[in-house]
Design a protein that fits this description.
89 residues; alpha+beta
Length: 89
């Protein structure tokens, strides 16, 4: 997989195999693992910041992005991205 860039749009499938376009909002490397924060393109186009859902994905060993599986890892990643988003404001 090529290096993902902030602003890039790609398609992901949810657990029901429904495809959704997401845009990369930020990237971080935490303890040697790459993570991205994404949001649905449809939500971003509505320009209502209060209703934007942000999701975190991690780069797995195969070079594909996958969901974060534990609450502990989610909290660690969420906290790190909160710092990034606060700096951008």
């Amino acid at each position: 997989m090529d290096k993902i860039q902030v602003g890039e749009i790609f398609t992901i499938s949810d657990e029901t195999d429904q495809e959704q376009e997401v845009e990369v909002l930020a990237m971080l490397t935490i303890e040697g693992t790459d993570y991205i924060a994404v949001s649905f393109v449809e939500d971003l186009e509505e320009e209502n910041e209060d209703d934007i859902d942000i999701f975190f994905l991690k780069l797995d060993e195969d070079g594909d992005f996958s969901a974060i599986e534990t609450d502990e890892e989610f909290e660690k990643v969420s906290t790190a991205f909160d710092v990034v988003f606060d700096e951008e404001e």
